Structure formats: structure tokens, C-alpha cells
Amino acid sequence: MNGAAKTMIEARDLTVGYGDRPVLERINFKVHRGEVLAILGASGSGKSTLLKHLIGLYQPMEGDVLITGESLVQADGEERLRLLRRFGVLYQGGALFGSLTAVENVRLPLDEFTDLSEMAKDLIALSKLRLVGLESAATKLPADLSGGMQKRAGIARAIVMDPCLLFLDEPSAGLDPITSADLDALIRELAHGLGITFVMVTHELASIYSVADRVIMLDPQVRGIVAEGPPAWLRDHAAQPWVRRFLNRGVA
Amino acid sequence: MAVAPPVDSPVRWELSRRADGTGMLVFTGELDTESTPVAWRSLESELAGSQMVRLEVDVRRLECDSAGLALLYYLSIGGMTPGATVEVTGLGPDLQHLFGSFSKEDFRVLQEHEPPCSSIAEDVGAATSAWLADLRQQVEFIGETTLAVIRSLFRPRLMRWKEVLRVFEVAGVNALPIVSLLTCLVGTVIAFESAQPLAEFGAQVFVANLLGLVMTRELGPVMAAIMLAGRSGSAFAAELGTMKVNEELNALQTMGLSPMQFLVVQRVVAGILLTPVLTVFAMYSGLAGGIPVLLGLGFPLRMVLNQVQTSLHFGDLAEGLSKSIVFGAIVACVSCLRGIQTGEGPRAVGESTTRSVVSSILLIILADALFAAVTYNLRK
Predict the structure, then answer these.
(1) Coil, strand or helix: which one is B141?
(2) What is the average pLDDT across B226-237?
(3) Residue B178 · residue B231 · CB < 8 Å
(4) Are A126 and B74 an interchain contact pair (Cβ–Cβ within 8 Å)?
(5) How many Å apart are CA A111 and CA A50, to the nearest integer?
(6) Global pTM value
(7) Using an 8 Å Cβ cutoff, are B279 and B321 in contact?
(8) Which stretches of chain A drop beneath a pLDDT of 50?
(9) Per-residue model confidence (pLDDT) at position B7
């Protein structure tokens, strides 16, 4: 893959938390183009907190988040907006706007940020819906879509501006195994076919083994990353027994 | 013939046409969301009426995103050269994959889709049916609440008095400053507005009588109830609505607890008990707001108080307090009902809150009108 070693996102000495209470301290990692990174950890280990800092919802207490080499923490105004457009986010529930149809939800960023004609916007939005297998549900409201379809529509909206980076918050949560496997296949296709980089927070081990190239394991005791590597390798060779147990579905 | 693209555009193209109706369009540069809109318009005007039968679009030296691909797709389906066969060549494998996700059929279906549109008769029918169903629910709810309150009075163990006290404090005690301030200002306004017309008849001293009667019989209870509806009724609806969305009401039911007994009765009892207290405060604040105006008009305080005292009877106070009890029950019942009726979705709680305030105020005014008619006939 051309430019495979390019770093798409980097957490540099990142300390995140709420108020003056740090949840994770001085953590460092990089994610390269086309890679799928899964952030794992027990409940309360700071996975979602880290994700919210990586996407710029919260300001870190210390350190920096670099999106394709540019600081998201220090950017403001137009520069920050430009960096925000480089990535998309899929929230846990899809976060579709209830009053808009699936295609209108997907079109929304195009309506807000481009001067494209109505026809061009419809063509692009429909192409994204077809990519995620939802072309036949374009005119349905989110309330009429199943959980899996809402997540697919959420992905379509997240990729409509052609981001190079996609953040997923618990993409498989609440989905049946078949829908979950379909979603995993879509993630693999987007990562390997289009070179989109993924950073996902998840608890679903089946998804992790299916799509993740690398995982980082967070530990609330040490407030940081305790293990990093391909999921199958960590399952068998991680130095920490609890990491091996975690990746073995609780079996020691 | 070469067509000149916009000078500052990152995308360039060269269009050559041959006499046999074939043509070649060669793109270079970058076709993205910024450059595509301009390029789309320019190309559309350049290709209009070109009468081509075949067009080859060469994109080997073009970088593009989805917006650029949309333009290439539109070209490829003959959108700018009707009747011509168009072939796009030189797309990389990644772009080829994305290009394949564009579909004329999907676009046609979207264009032909029309949102379901019902007739006026259907709308009126549905609205009437919904209104009747809502009315029935309200009647049922009032009946259930009354039974639950009576049951609680006979079996005090069922009543969570701590919760009643909490609601009393939050909805009543904490509301005293704002109710007092508003009714004080209303009293001032009434005194000023009535002083001028009564002065024309030499009856300015009767401003005190008017103020006493209006605040005791009418504005005291109504203002207190409206404040209760806006400030606390909306909070009841939002609280219960959020509990419903979070499935807390389902949890109560599956534990064998009645949401009516567990949540509604306390609020209704607190509402019935606190509204008369708020009303008394509202009455006194209204008078306190009007008295300075009368003093300013030159009437001594003793005279003003005497006028108020002679104009008011126990019946007036009883009427005001009776109203306030009914208004308190209305606000608490309606707000809890709207909260429990909360539907699904992000807007549901907001809608319940709005409906609770609107319904409460409407019913307060309706009940007030009934009271006015009844008490008028009783006084005759």
C-alpha cells in the first residue's frame, strides 16, 4: 500500500481526565494509514475518555493529539475545522438525526460544508449508502432502521467527506452476531480497500480478532497502556496474565 | 478545441472534439469538494449542445475525492452529453471501487420518492381520534390518581412522606421568591393601571378594594398555579419522562411497584398542599406591590388597609384557596401524566415538557372560568 507507514494519528504524552483527576497519564501511541487499532480495557479504564480526547471533544490535561502530523489540541478556528474534517466518528448509537431520512443524514455534512449541486450531493450520499449496503433504505427515518442499519448509516455519514481516519465507539455493541460480522466485514473493506484508518473502542472480542491489526490495552491501575500488539499475539504472549485472560474471554 | 477551466482551479482539463462526433476529455490536477462545483458548472456549459456520439474521459493524471467521482459518474452516464457513449479511463483501483458505488438507479428511486402525504380528512380524523384517546387517558389517570391518593390517606405506610417533603421544598419553598416577585409586580401594575380610570370617577380610593379582591379571588391563585406549571410542572414531566426513557418506570413495574403509587401520588399530594401556601404568598405580595402606589397617590396606609379589610370577606379567601387546591391538583396530575406519556426518541422529553405546561395552563384557565361562573351564581 502506497504510503502505508504514514502516521495518521498520534497521541503524544497524552494525559486525559476530568477536572484535576487524571484517568490516563502520559500515554503514547501511533496509528498508521490503513491500520485498524482497537482500544481495549476493563470498564472504567478510560477507553471512552481517551476516544473523546482523540476526537477533540475534550481538551487534554497535558500532551498532544496529532492528526496527520498537525496538533488538534493547539488548532483553533478554521485550522481546527480543517483538521476535524479529516476524520469521521461513529457514535455508539449511530447518532443519526431523528427528523432526517438516512440519505438526508448522510448528506448533511455536504450541505453544510460544500457548494456542490443538489444532484451531486444526492449522488455522493447515495454512493456512500450503497457502500454500506443501505441503498434501499435511503428514504427511511432512523426510527424505521434496525440498530445495525443505524450504525451502517452512521458510518456512511462519517465517511461522506472522505476522511482518512474513522473513530468508532463500540461499533458492535447491541448487535446480533450476523449483523456484527457484516459490520466487521464493512470495516475491513473500508480499511483495506479505501485505506481508511480506524481507531475503535470495543469490548467485542470477535470483532477485535476479525478486524483489528493491533490493540492497545488500558489499565486503570497504572492509568496507561499496559500491552500493545496484534490481538492474537497478545492473547498468547502478553506478559500480564490478566491481559491474556481478557483476550481469552475470561479464561485464564 | 481546448476549453479553458477557471484560472485558479486546481483541476485542468482539455476537451478535443473531432468531426466524426467523438471527443476526448483529459483531466489533470485535483478534483475535490472545493474545485468540483466550479468545474461541474463550467463543463456543463461547455458541453451543452455538443452533439457528441462518443466521449472518452481520461483521468490518469487526476486525483479526486467523492465529489470528483460524482462529476465523473455524471459525465459517464451522459448527464452532460445526452445520447453519447461515455467511457472513463485511468481510474485507480481504490477509486474504481468507489466509482462502482455510484448508481443511476438509486438516484432515480430517490427522485421519484415522495414522502407519504395524507389528506385533510385523514389528518382531522387522526387528530380527533388522538384527542379523544388523550382525553380518555386523562380521565382514567385522574381516576387512578384519586383512588391512589385516597388509598394512601387510609394506609399512610404507602405514602413516601420524605418524597412529599422533597417535592414540597423544591417546587414550593424554592418557588416562593419568584412567585412573590411576580405577583408583587403584578400588584403594582394593577394599582397604576386602575388608578387613572377610577380617578375620573373620583373613586381612586377603591383601587385598594380592587387590588384586594383581584389578588385574593383571581390573580393570587392563578399566578401561583401558572408559576407552578411553568416551573415545577415542567420539571415533573421532564423527570418522569427521563425515567421512562431510561426504563426506570419499567423497572418499577417489574419489581411489583406501581409508578402511580411510587411517583405520582407524592407529587400530587405535594402539589395540593403547596399551592395554597404559594397562593397566600402571592396574595400578600400582590397587595404589597400595590400599596406603595396608593401611598404615592396620597392615601394613608391605615385608610388603604381599612379599604382592603372592608372589601374582603372570608368567602373571597375561601374561593381563592379552593381554586388553588384544584389548580395544584391539575398541575401535578397533568404534569405527571405527560411525563408518563413520554414516547421514544431524543425529542420525546422536550415534547412532554411542553405539553405539560400548555395543558396545565389551559386547564387552569378553564377551571378558573368554571369557578367564576359558579361563584357568580352563588353570590347572587
Answers:
(1) helix
(2) 94
(3) yes
(4) no
(5) 30
(6) 0.74
(7) yes
(8) 1-4
(9) 58
- Give the dihedral of Cα atoms A220, A222, A225, A229; nearest 10 deg: -100
Task: Output the furthest CA–CA distance in chain B (Å, rounded).
Answer: 109
B330/B226 Cα distance (integer angstroms): 11
Place of cell 379523544: B132
Amino acid at the residue B376: Y
Can you tell me the distance from the alpha carbon of B321 to that of B307, in angstroms, rounded to the nearest whole number?
21
- Could you tell me where the DSSP H helices lie in A146-176? 147-158
**Residues whose CB falls within 8 Å of the CB of residue A149, separated by 6 or more in sequence, listed in order:** A102, A134, A137
Is the pLDDT assigned to residue B3 strictly greater than 70? no
What's the angle, vertex CA B43, arms to CA B40 and CA B47, rounded to 5? 140
Contacts of B106 (CB under 8 A, 6+ apart): A126, A127, A129, A130, A135, A138
- State the pLDDT at residue A3: 43
Confidence at residue B4, expressed as pLDDT on a 0 to 100 scale = 52
Structure confidence by residue, pLDDT tens digits, B18-29: 888 888 999 999
Residues B160 and B263 sit within 8 Å (Cβ to Cβ): no
- Please compute the mean of the pLDDT values over residues B97-123 and round it to a whole number: 85
Which chain B residue is nearest to residue A189, measuring alpha carbons? Answer: B97
Optimal mutation site among B72, B74, B98, B99, interface A, most CBs of chain A within 10 A: B98
Angle at which helix A118-131 crosses helix B66-76, to 10 degrees, equals 100
Q: What is the ipTM of this complex?
A: 0.82
Residue B153 confidence (pLDDT) above 50: yes
Q: What integer pLDDT is reported at residue A28 of this predicted model? A: 94
Three-state SS at B50: coil
Strands A224-229 and A70-71: unpaired
- Sequence-separated (6 or more) residues with CB below 8 Å from residue A187: A36, A168, A171, A198, A200, A211
Q: How confident is the model at residue B83 (pLDDT cuts 50, 70, 90)?
A: confident
B97 with A117: Cβ contact below 8 A:
no
Would you state the cell numbers that stand for residue B252, as one nine-digit string?
Answer: 418499577
Is B242 in contact with B348 (CB distance < 8 Å)? Answer: no
The continuous run of DSSP H or E covering A18 comes out as strand A7-18
| Confidence check: pLDDT of B2 > 70 | no
* Helix or strand (DSSP H, E) at B57: strand B54-64
Cell representation of residue A181: 460480522
Residues of B in contact with A127 (CB under 8 A): 66, 69-70, 73, 98, 101-103, 106
CB A130 within 8 A of CB A102: no
- Cα–Cα dist A36/B184, whole Å: 65
In terms of phi and psi (left: phi > 0; alpha: psi -120 to 50; beta: otherwise), the region of A68 is left
Contact check, Cβ <8 Å, B110/A130:
no
CA dihedral A142, A144, A148, A154 (to 10 degrees): -20
pLDDT confidence of residue B256: 83
Q: What pLDDT, in 10s, does the model give residues B310-349?
A: 989 999 999 999 999 999 999 999 999 999 999 877 788 9
